[in-house]
Amino acid sequence: MSENEPHTPASGEWNVEAQGRAWNGDEAWSRYKLTPHKIEMIDGKLFWSDETRLLMLGLLLENCGADAAVRFGNPEVWREAVARLGDEQATK
Q1: How far is the CA of 90 from the CAs of 13, 14, 76, 79, 82, in angstroms?
Q2: Has residue 65 got a pLDDT over 90?
Q3: Residue 17: per-residue pLDDT
Q4: Residues facing residue 46 across a β-bridge
Q5: Are residues 55 and 8 in contact, defined by beta-carbon separation less than 8 angstroms?
Q6: Contact indicator for 64, 20 with CB cutoff of 8 Å
Q7: How far apart are CA 47 and CA 5, in angstroms?
Q8: Of 11, 18, 50, 63, which is the most buried if we count CB atoms within 10 A?
Q9: What are the φ/ψ torsions at residue 51 (nearest 5 degrees)?
């Protein structure tokens, strides 16, 4: 992470629900402060690093919700990703 990139919350710090939600009070300002100052594209990808891309994905997932997210792309890809997540947790 470069000094210009915000700290990304740990996976357990995200509050992604089935339905999207608005941020309130202090949470709204703290989430807003995480966003990059500008949207840029480098080598065909938005933002400079995977960390920044994942940060933005987390912010958008909180606002849009999981139900909306899984409608993008092939549903089988989502099922396979969830299955791999279960496999990873079983090996810990």
Answers
A1: 22, 22, 21, 17, 13
A2: yes
A3: 95
A4: 41
A5: yes
A6: yes
A7: 10
A8: 63
A9: -60, -45
Secondary structure of the chain in HEC code, one letter for each residue: CCCCCCCCCCHHHCCCCCCCCCCCHHHHHHHHCCCCCCCCEECCEECCCHHHHHHHHHHHHHHHCHHHHCCCCCHHHHHHHHHHHHHHHHCC
CA 63/CA 14 separation, integer angstroms: 11
Q: What is the pLDDT of residues 17-63, one digit of tens each?
A: 999 999 999 999 999 999 998 999 999 999 999 999 999 999 999 99
Residue with token string 């309130």? 24
- Mean pLDDT across 72-90: 89
Residue that the structure tokens 């299955």 belong to = 83
